[in-house]
Design goal:
It is a single chain. This protein has 371 residues and is α/β, with parallel strands linked by helices. It folds into 2 domains: 4-169 and 357-370, Glycogen Phosphorylase B (Rossmann fold); 173-352, Rossmann fold, CATH 3.40.50. 43% of the residues lie in helices and 17% in strands. The strands form 2 sheets. Strands 3-2-1-4-5-6-7 form a 7-stranded parallel sheet, with helices on both faces. A 6-stranded parallel sheet has the order 10-9-8-11-12-13, with helices on both faces.
Length: 371
């Protein structure tokens, strides 16, 4: 039996563990995976795929209208030559280009994963027309949470196209980290051994709610003057506003980390983790909900994205209302003062992640590709 040829088309991604794990998982399976990466430079993902001898092409792409046209014809040409049975597109530009080319070539399965929540509803109403276009071009849509499925249905997508497939994780990689990996990061980011360390891993976007975490941390400093705030993945258009909020903090009370490759060890620097998107639908998934619990870090969350599907207040995390700095502060303080509660939510958090195991995602994807 010949293998099903599936081409992933991905735009503007540098490092992505999810795609690395998917590529590895399909080696020696009935799926023949290849990648087309739309990037203006070589990426960490490209290097990884080549190291695993996975077929990968990179098309020069920086996001301009001229690049969009050139990339479309290059993708079309590559698909004419390779004739995939299915394409699976990720991120907006790749979806527009890949699904359009796939329809022209009558590719049997044209799949895209919806990675956005209600962003267009809140910030870009004109974007709805593109959401509807993608749903029309696709034969199948991967919704990464119930929230995304509900948004797709509200936008007019056909229910029979939608497949709920949660992100999958190598959960064991968040545990038993080799100590020297943690020590290396600690020397870089917390050499003075400040405590407690409050961790945030989030792009600097208004929707992520970092603007409510910083005032909460400022208040926590009154109780714990040696506390440290680590802001990781610290890039994005909300940077000027966040920098203003950091004004008044001593520079040794916070660390800004634009990018850290060793995500698993980074979590181990944190005493408390905080993730507070500003409304229930703005996150499509929120991988950090799963990652922080897998890493065993007691966490403070708002209920957005996938969180309502498995997060429970005082069972596996502390849940706070949206846009509430005072509640974030009180929850951080509570975790510092209630050891019994902290231990309970850490243990329950790790036990409540079986639905996010990598093998489950791979099995569902394989079924989708082979149908």
């Amino acid at each position: 039996m010949s293998k099903v040829k599936v081409t992933y088309i991905i735009s503007n991604i540098n490092k992505a563990l999810a795609f690395e794990w998917i590529a590895e998982s399909f080696i020696n399976k009935s799926i023949q995976l290849s990648f087309i990466l739309l990037n203006d430079v070589e990426s960490e993902l490209e290097h990884f795929l080549r190291s695993k001898n996975v077929n990968v092409d990179r098309i020069q792409f920086s996001g301009t209208k001229k690049d969009l046209s050139n990339a479309f014809f290059q993708v079309l040409n590559k698909m004419i030559n390779s004739r995939p049975d299915a394409i699976h597109c990720h991120m907006f530009d790749a979806c527009i280009i890949g699904l359009s080319a796939g329809m022209i070539l009558n590719v049997k399965k044209r799949i895209f994963t919806r990675h956005s929540g209600s962003y267009n509803w809140s910030y870009n109403q004109k974007g709805h027309k593109y959401d509807r276009l993608l749903a029309w071009l696709a034969t199948d849509i991967v919704a990464i949470s119930e929230n995304v499925k509900n948004l797709l249905l509200q936008e007019g997508a056909k229910e029979n196209k939608i497949n709920i497939i949660h992100h999958g994780f190598k959960l064991n990689e968040f545990e038993n980290i080799i100590p020297n990996r943690i020590s290396k990061l600690k020397n870089n980011f917390n050499p003075s051994n400040k405590q407690p360390v409050i961790g945030v891993i989030s792009r600097w976007l208004h929707l992520k709610g970092i603007q409510y975490i910083i005032p909460a941390f400022k208040k926590l400093l009154n109780d714990y003057p040696d506390a440290l705030l680590i802001l990781a993945n610290a890039n994005g258009p909300y940077k000027p506003e966040i920098e203003k909020l950091l004004t008044g903090l001593l520079t040794d009370s916070y660390r800004i980390i634009p990018f850290e490759n060793d995500l698993f060890a980074l979590y181990q620097l944190f005493d408390i983790y905080v993730h507070t998107p500003i409304n229930p639908t703005i996150e499509a998934f929120g991988q950090t909900y799963v990652e922080s619990l897998a890493a065993g870090i007691p966490s403070v969350f708002t209920m957005s994205g996938v969180a309502p599907e498995f997060i429970e207040h005082e069972k596996n995390a502390l849940v706070v209302p949206f846009k509430d700095s005072e509640a974030i502060y009180m929850s951080m303080k509570r975790l510092m003062e209630d050891e019994k509660l902290k231990l309970k939510i850490v243990e329950n958090g790790r036990n409540d992640l079986s639905g996010f195991e990598l093998d489950k995602m791979i099995t569902k994807l394989q079924k989708l590709y082979e149908e």
